[in-house]
Amino acid sequence: MNETPAPRLLFLFDMDEVLVRYDWKVRMAALAEFTGHEFDELRRRWWDCGNEQRAEAGGYADGDAYLAAFERAMGCEVPETEWARIRGAAMTELPERIDAVRVASEHGRVGLLTNNGPLAGRWIQHWAPSLPPLFGEHLDTTSNFGARKPEPEVFLRALEHHGVPAERTFFADDMPINVEGARSVGIHAVLVEEHTDLRAAVLAFVAEQERQERQETQDRDGREARVGSV
User: Fold this and answer.
1) pTM of whole model > 0.85?
2) How far apart are CA 161 and CA 146, in angstroms?
3) Three-point CA angle 198, 199, 205, nearest 5°
4) Is 126 exposed, middle or buried (0-12, 13-18, 19+ CB in 10 A)?
5) Which residues have CB under 8 Å from 17's CB, separation 6+?
6) Can you give the pLDDT at residue 26?
C-alpha cells in the first residue's frame, strides 16, 4: 500500500507505444548481433517459452534474478549495462503524449503501469528521462504487482496500492485486450492509437469527473434541504 495520501483522481499510463515509441526490430537486431543468435533463436530461448511474461508477472525476485535467467537462456554473459543499452536504443520519447501526463498531473496522481519485469524498472528513468519528473516514485512495472496486463488482478492491485477507486481512475494503453482488462474492473480506459489525442482524453475524463462531483453535491444539498424542512 502506498503510504502517501490517496489522490482524488488517478491516471495510469502504459509506456511502450503510448509514451514512447518502441521499435522491437531494433532491439532484436542488436540482441542478435550481441549474442550471435538469429531472431528466431532469440525468440525460442526467451520469449516463446514465456520467460518474459513470467518476468512481467513478478516471476523473478529482482533485476539480478531476471538478468541471471536471461544469461542462462542466451548461453552467454550479458552485462546489465549492455542489456539496458540495447533496450533503451529501441525507445524514443513521444513529447505530445508525455505532455498529456503533465496535464493529468495537474488534476491527480499519475502512475506508470507497463508490462515489464524488475530489470526494466531499474532503467526506465534512464531510457525516458522526461518521465521521472512527472511520475516521481510511481514508475511501476507490472512485476511490482505480481500480475500482468490484461489480468484484472494487476489493475485491482494497482488501485489498492494507490488507494483510489476504479471509478476515479483513468488508464491509457495501446492494446485493446489491456483496455478491456481495465474496464472489467470499472476503470475508465482509453485505447491509444496512432492519432489519439491523449491530452484531450485526459481532459474529457477530468470534465466528466467534475460534472459528477457537481451532481453529487447538488443531490446531497437537496437531500439535506428536504430533511431540514421536515
Assistant:
1) yes
2) 12
3) 90
4) exposed
5) 174, 192
6) 98
